[in-house]
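Hi P.,

Sorry for the delay on this. The queue was packed all week, but I finally got your sequence through. Input first:
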Amino acid sequence: MKSLGLNWFIEGSLDFEYKKYILLNYLQEINRHFDKSKLYPNLTDLVFHYNNLLDFKHNKTGLQQAFPQRLTQADIEAVKLTYKKIIADDSSMMEIERIITYAISKMDPTIQTGKEIYDFVESRLNIDPVGLIPLMPYHGYFSLRNGNERTNWIYEYQISFFESKDDRYRGINIQFVDTYQQSITNTPESIKLDLIKHRRHLPNPAVYYVQSDISFPLEQTLLPVAKRSLVKYIMKAA
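Then the structure:
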């Protein structure tokens, strides 16, 4: 997927029609992915650019605090330098405001579409613990089944916690382990026993069986939604 440049709305020509053309091409590609229920990385990228516009509009030199994970020092200096060049030019600032206002109005419904797809996928997921779950269920495995497909995908997961000055966040890291073909004898319960036997670094792991009742694109949609849903499930049950 071709993404927008970080500062696409202030770099190069500040011609409204040109920026409109760039934006609409980008959104057209995003919507093509959404039409195929392919959420990621499209939704993440779109939300980033949307928040980037809002932040520039409300606090034009504060991007470093808002997006430290995406901005390098060179990016930050480029933003500040560009802003210094245009701040004294009222016509340029007016054009930028026009571009930003238009872009936000066009991005918003596309984001809502992405969220609706996300909510739909999440509503089709079922999460069940496999056997007894330990008191600290933040490190273990989950088995993921995509609709009626017999293939199950096994992942090791670890939930991490980190804090900012204002809030506490949860993240999840996963690592692909293996696949297995589900059958009468090859069940999530038997797979749990096999994991314990052959992967001794987790002698008493939490194991979850995650299944969607209809199929979705695995890497672009089902797996990212399943990860987030699993975190919510574990934190609610803990």
